């Protein structure tokens, strides 16, 4: 095997590893976000929070980027008359993104 082939396999493995870490960090970010949103909406029941976490993670699969999550949480806030705007949700996403990346990297 040539050194080029070895380097190519190494790069492919690194790409796959990085993609896995990104996915885990985004899922963790969405979990933190769902817990925060649940608290803001006054949801305290563990099963309801767990279901909401799954809904937020699933919402993030709709399109690239966090816009789909912002729309989902904003719609949920509006339905519960929670006065938090999109900018505040985006700020929480940024905060939890940093936190989640740190957590995932420390576990890797």
Fraction in beta strands: under 5%
Structural class: mainly alpha
Unreliable segments of 5+ consecutive residues: none
**How many individual β-strands?**
0
Helix content: over 70%
- The end-to-end span amounts to 29 Å
Q: How would a textbook summarize the main sheet?
A: none
Query: Which geometry do the CA atoms define?
Result: elongated
Separate helix tally = 4
Q: What value does the Rg take, in angstroms?
A: 17 Å
The average pLDDT value, as a whole number, equals 90
The topology string of helices and strands comes to: HHHH
Structure characteristics:
108 residues, mainly alpha, elongated
Explain how this protein is built.
There is one protein chain. With 108 residues, the protein is mainly alpha-helical. The chain has 4 helices and no strands. The chain has helices at residues 3-40, 46-59, 67-79, 86-107. It starts with a helix and ends with a helix. 21% of the residues are buried.
């Amino acid at each position: 095997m040539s050194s080029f082939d070895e380097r190519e396999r190494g790069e492919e493995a690194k790409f796959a590893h990085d993609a896995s870490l990104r996915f885990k960090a985004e899922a963790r970010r969405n979990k933190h976000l769902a817990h925060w949103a649940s608290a803001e909406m006054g949801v305290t029941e563990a099963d309801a929070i767990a279901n909401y976490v799954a809904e937020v993670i699933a919402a993030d699969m709709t399109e690239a980027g966090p816009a789909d999550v912002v729309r989902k949480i904003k719609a949920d806030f509006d339905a519960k008359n929670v006065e938090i705007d999109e900018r505040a949700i985006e700020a929480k996403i940024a905060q939890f993104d940093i936190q989640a990346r740190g957590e995932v990297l420390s576990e890797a």
